[in-house]
Amino acid sequence: MPKIKTLSKRKQQRPDGWEEIEPTLTEFEQKMRDAENESTAGKRKVESTWSVMRVHHQRSRYIFDLYYKRKAISRKLYKYCIDNGYGDGNLIAKWKKQGFEKLCCLQCIQPRDTNYGTACICRVPKANLEEGRTVECVHCGCRGCASTD
């Protein structure tokens, strides 16, 4: 019986411009490894994933800024980065919508993850909160990602 060739075994050809963003993406990859291997001693249970979420957000934001804000990379390279897991396509899609420009993570807008079936506390504008109150998201540690802040 002949062997079946699958697409996942073949490497994709890297698009033009990859050499310019590769050092930054490898730096983010190293930061991610450090965040994953970070000790959780002395932290609350929810705090253990916050550093990973921050690096994930920074890496996705870097790709978003390159493509949509500065227009420094091609669509082909942008698609390559999203397809290969260098950026979160769903989070970037939310950043393009009005009101979600500063969104920290997708968990903050999912009502099923909160006690009262609403958005996360970090999505509430700081003007609507009590004076001097520090807000911290349980999911990612964000201190406020409402677009009006």
Automatic annotation (TrEMBL):
Compositionally biased tracts (Basic residues): 1-12
Keyword Ubl conjugation: no
Listed GO biological process terms: mRNA splicing, via spliceosome
Region (Disordered): 1-21
Keyword flag Nucleus: yes
Record keywords, A-Z: Nucleus
GO cellular component, one term: spliceosomal complex
Signal peptide: none
Top-level division of the source organism's lineage: Eukaryota
Localization per Swiss-Prot or TrEMBL: Nucleus
The family this protein is said to belong to: Belongs to the BUD31 (G10) family.
PANTHER family given in the database record: PROTEIN BUD31 HOMOLOG (PTHR19411:SF0), PROTEIN BUD31-RELATED (PTHR19411)
UniProt name for this protein: Component of the SF3b subcomplex of the U2 snRNP
Species: Coemansia erecta
Phylogenetic classification of the source organism: Eukaryota, Fungi, Fungi incertae sedis, Zoopagomycota, Kickxellomycotina
